[in-house]
Amino acid sequence: MMLPSFAGVDCVAGVTEMCNPKGFVKIDEYQRNPVYKNIFAAGVCVAIPPVEPTPVPVGAPKTGYMIESMVTAIVHNIKAELTGHGEPDTKGTWQAICLADFGDRGAAFIALPQIPPRNVNWFAAGKWVHLAKIAFEKYFIRKMKKGTSEPLYEKYMMRAIGINRLEK
Question: In whole angstroms, how far apart are CA 38 and each of 13, 30, 44, 116?
């Protein structure tokens, strides 16, 4: 499979102090731009520097859970600023959990943290991943309809297996 190189969004890509040459938003450990402190970024638009040089320039993958970690940190940091509790101090863990569906089969992986060196690096494949993905989609849609991003039982279950959204 060949995919074109990803690039940032045109409306901000040209702001060199805010974005890297590919147009992705530069951030510090609190998800905010180092130059424009009132701009926070999460997800695919974030500039994550490569861990090591490669023959073909590649970016770091960004999984859903990793993005949830980023967004949760941003919410805590904006709240700290708006309520006058000082500077942002919350960091996302950027841990990765992924269920990749390939039709009737799939692959699953956990990388803790996403960016090496890792404490956990687990991978499995099979038909069970396809079924797990269907179950997760139904669960996720139900969570969003209820307006709950991280139910208490989910938080404690994830914590029990060593997965946290935020650094302590």
Answer: 17, 11, 19, 29
Structural tokens at position 163: 């997965």
Q: Which amino acid is at 28?
A: D
pTM metric for this prediction: 0.86
Question: 119: alpha, beta or left, given left = phi > 0 and alpha = psi -120 to 50?
Answer: alpha
pLDDT digits (tens, 9 = 90+) for 70-114: 999 999 999 999 999 888 999 999 998 999 999 999 999 998 888
Biggest CA pair distance of the chain: 51
